Amino acid sequence: MTDLYKRTFLLTAADCNSQFELPLATLGQNIVETATDHANILGVDYRRLKEDGNAWVLLRMTIALQRMPRVNESYEIKTWVAGFNSRFSQRDFTISVGDEVIGQVTTTWTVINSVTRQAASLDGLGNLESVVRPEKADVGRSQRLKPADFERPDIQSVGYRVATTDIDTNRHLTAMRYTQLMVDRWPLDHYDHYRVGRFEIAYSAEARYDDYLMVARVDLTDDTAGVRISRGTETLAQASFQWCKR
Q1: pLDDT at 90 over 80
Q2: Eight-class DSSP state of 14
Q3: Which residues in the chain belong to E strands, given as ranges?
Q4: Cβ atoms of 23 and 6 closer than 8 Å
Q5: Do 18 and 169 touch, CB atoms closer than 8 A?
Q6: CA 20 to 30 Å from 47, out of 109, 124, 137, 244?
Q7: CA dihedral in degrees (75, 76, 82, 86; nearest 10)?
Q8: In Å, how far are 15, 156, 189, 228 from 161, measured between CA atoms?
Q9: pLDDT (tens digit per residue) in 32-80
Q10: How far apart are CA 139 and CA 238, in angstroms?
């Protein structure tokens, strides 16, 4: 059993965005895949949780970036369990190109019952507690959004109907699809001039097939913004973006 796990990826041209970099949603997906691989090794994977009628759910992800991996670069994602109790598991990551650490990530996970969709206990997953490492990813201070942030007159909203290809095995909108919908709230030329320096997303409810969502964007300062995805009056996910000039 290993308390530290790493996986290497190659960014090909086919997987790049228009700035010849790794897309934010793809980075998020690779982070989740690396966590999943490590969970398999630790014996706390999908099959183990299914025995209890449960499933892992990602609650929060915070990514702090010096830069994104670029086309034809190999990059390494390293992960470890940074915290564990009966309700939550914290898993942290570093992203490196060669000897250069270009990003750090922290994530919070919980377990829900697959039928009731209610929170379940992590007490039966003792393998995680035994591999907790003391080091933490350095992602800076949390930038939690307030409801009042989305009551400003300059808010910009678009609608979106959840489609078949948006749905995962849990029959809800995939975690990274939320990120894609949020990234698309800015035009292409914005990304020619700015890159994401910090991204923090929190999930609070599930979107399902054929739900009609509203994706609202609000610019808070010259270099920070918030995006909220809602269904009616219910907030499903919200994220803060911090921009860096290229």
Answers
A1: yes
A2: G
A3: 5-10, 54-65, 74-84, 89-97, 100-113, 119-120, 156-161, 194-203, 212-219, 224-231, 234-245
A4: no
A5: no
A6: 137
A7: 90
A8: 25, 17, 25, 15
A9: 999 999 999 998 888 888 888 988 999 999 999 999 999 999 999 999 9
A10: 18
- Angle in degrees, 0-180, between the axes of helices 24-42 and 175-183, rounded to the nearest 10: 160
Phi (first) and psi of residue 179, to 5 degrees: -60, -45
Backbone dihedral angles phi then psi of residue 108, each to the nearest 5 degrees: -120, 130
Q: To 5 degrees, how large is the angle CA 27–CA 69–CA 9?
A: 65
Query: Residue 55's pLDDT is what?
Result: 87
Q: Are 211 and 225 in contact (CB under 8 A)?
A: no
| Alpha-carbon span 174 to 57, nearest angstrom | 11
Type of residue found at 57: V
Half-sphere exposure of 93 (CA within 13 A, CB side): 30
Instruction: Tell me how far apart the alpha carbons of residues 135 and 143 are, in angstroms, rounded to a whole number.
Output: 21
Strands (E), 13-66: 54-65
Report the phi/psi class of residue 91: left, alpha or beta, with left for phi > 0 and alpha for psi in -120 to 50: beta
How far, in Å, CA of 203 to CA of 10, rounded?
29
